Amino acid sequence: MSDKQKKPQKLKARLPRGFVDRSSADIHATNEMVGKIREVYERYGFDPLETPLFEYTDALGKFLPDSDRPNEGVFSLQDDDEQWMSLRYDLTAPLARHVAENFNEIQLPFRTYRAGYVFRNEKPGPGRFRQFMQFDADTVGAPGVQADAEMCMMMADTMEALGIKRGDYVIRVNNRKVLDGVMEAIGLGGDDKAGQRLNVLRAIDKLDKFGSEGVALLLGAGRKDESGDFTKGAGLGEEQIEKVLFFVGIKDYAESAAELGELVAGTAKGSEGVEELNIIGALATGAGYGPDRIKIDPSVVRGLEYYTGPVFEAELTFDVTNDKGEKVVFGSVGGGGRYDGLVSRFMGQPVPATGFSIGVSRLLTALKNLGKLGQDEVVAPVLVTVMDGDVESMGRYQKFTQDLRQAGIRAEMYQGNWKKFGNQLKYADRRGCPIAIIQGGDERAEGVVQLKDLFEGKRLSGEITDNAEWREARVAQDTVSEADLVAKVQEILAAQAEDRRRAKGE
Fold first, then answer.
1. Based on the domain organization, do 135 and 113 belong to the same domain?
2. Does residue 391 sit in the same domain as residue 492?
3. Is the entire prediction scored with pTM above 0.85?
């Protein structure tokens, strides 16, 4: 076979693993949700900030392996000056860099919010993507725990602004200092115990999944699961396990605070942490946010790499059905805490900071489960059909389209093969267009246009049984002068919106 006869290799269309194309409906729903979150953050006095997707790798603070290409967990590339750059994996490290770089111009406390994509170079799986959106709010330069308490209140207000009712969510609060105090109290305080501490934290994090009995096994020798796989434990003794389980098992903080204080008494930071939790609890209660909304809960661990004080988690407490058909609590949709060391890495001086991050995709899933999205529905465009293809006629159709757009109405002029009029109506039907506008030669001569109410037409064809009913119903097709076109379209769209409201029982 000669080269000329060889068929060119067709390029295969492939979506990269762990990434996803987003549909129009998903984007509209996300915009609606993000708009509501933004409103709450603005009300609290936070201002927007945007940082680039790429940062120099060392600025991200990820402890990367020594290799030619530092790509463990992050997507990295080498710039032409041989400096490593990485796609950001969260929105907090870039904020720390921005604050340090612009420290002299920034007014402290610096209160900012950011929404954007972050990237994780990890193995993708069900519901685990390599690119996802986060929405963060941070206060930099406020050392007092009132800043942490306010973050929790703002999260509670955000949940309610999104239509999640009281009782369906809770903001859970713990403190890294208390956790460190407990570790010290059971003899795991020094640098040489860092590995064992991490195993203890991982075990505590499994409390929701395995219960206190499963966690006790993971704190001790280890745990065998149903399949027979064995997970090695943290190797704690019985007394140590008892103290950890008491700490993470506290249900009523007010009742247990004194006993917890005794457990961490004499440790470097434990008592300070208990005091901070007491202040957060008092501030929240004083502002009207009781434990049904903001709850001190020592089982909150979070990924504690850079947290230095209070940590918090927004949890949705209603049941959903998982892939296996089991009823499970929806769980966490965001979290954060105090990270006083992150900006200081660049500065050589202490810079206190606290922040909160919402997982946008996960929260979107939750709101869809609750039927809380899509209230602000996007109506498809009004379709201006094409009856004649000469330049003068096309100009008139385009003018109708522009007049509707100028009045704030979504509109489009048909762009396909106009010669088969049936195709235009099929297109309008598939697109969900509310109205079709038609003007042939006869209508043009009279200076009028026909309006076809496509929603009403569909309904009437299924409902009307005799001529009397037809006369009383809203007419599915109408003829108006060109001058009245916009007003008539507005009238029909308003009637359709009213019909939809009635159908929803509003």
1. yes
2. yes
3. no
